[in-house]
Amino acid sequence: MYDVRRTVDLVIPVKTLDRAKSRLVGAADRGVGDPAAHAALVLAVALDTVTAAASAQGVGRVLVVTSDPELTSALHRIGVEVLADGPEPGLNSALRHGAAALGPSVGALQADLPALRPAELSAALAEAGDRRAFCADRQGTGTTLLLAAPGEPLDPRFGVGSATAHTESGAVPLTGDWPSLRCDVDTAEDLAVAARIGFGPRTAAQFVLSA
């Protein structure tokens, strides 16, 4: 279906559940802000993202970098590899740490894509080919997927304005119409967009439970 010419190993970093996605606190329980409800939402989003990525054509290994014990246990139950955080703090350090444990063809995927469709990720890999490339978020300023050229370092530059930073680093912006791959969730508005696309099963169940 897709001309995916190489297999890419993906590293997916996730903060501890109590620290991740702070701007979404209250989204799971109608503004109450219960820490347990928030942690359950972050866990569901991460698991939906990881399982969708792992089933995409062209994806080899999926390695989650996290030191959260609950998430680690949940990932082990579904057969996903986990690597504890390295000594250096920060998202880009976590990505370099994970990439160093993977093969010569590596990419980085954000962990907050609860509507991710495997077919869209496969299409992005096919469009990238052997190029250093990235997929911008739906606003066009951030990055949801970064792919290194085979045998080259990942060189992640995530943060504010990462789409520009990755372009300046030589990465080619991917232009496909992939709403689920571009819809990372940082705010309640982002969650609403992802809901319209269609949440993965764990995120959808979390919202049913909190309704």
UniProtKB/TrEMBL annotation:
Q: In which pathway does it act?
A: Cofactor biosynthesis; coenzyme F420 biosynthesis
Please state what class of enzyme this protein is: transferase
Which residues are in the MobA-like NTP transferase domain?
A: 47-147
Name the SUPFAM superfamilies on file: Nucleotide-diphospho-sugar transferases (SSF53448)
Q: What is its EC number?
A: 2.7.7.105
Q: Which reaction does it catalyse?
A: phosphoenolpyruvate + GTP + H(+) = enolpyruvoyl-2-diphospho-5'-guanosine + diphosphate
* InterPro entries per record: CofC, MobA-like_NTP_Trfase, Nucleotide-diphossugar_trans
Gene Ontology terms: biological process? F420-0 metabolic process
Keyword set, alphabetical order: GTP-binding, Nucleotide-binding, Nucleotidyltransferase, Transferase
* Gene Ontology MF term list: GTP binding; phospholactate guanylyltransferase activity
Q: Write out the residues that bind phosphoenolpyruvate.
A: T143, G159, S162
HAMAP family, sorted: CofC
Its biological purpose is as follows: Guanylyltransferase that catalyzes the activation of phosphoenolpyruvate (PEP) as enolpyruvoyl-2-diphospho-5'-guanosine, via the condensation of PEP with GTP. It is involved in the biosynthesis of coenzyme F420, a hydride carrier cofactor.
Name the NCBIfam families on file. Answer: F420_cofC
Recorded family membership: Belongs to the CofC family.
The protein, known as:
Phosphoenolpyruvate guanylyltransferase
Species for this entry: Kutzneria albida DSM 43870
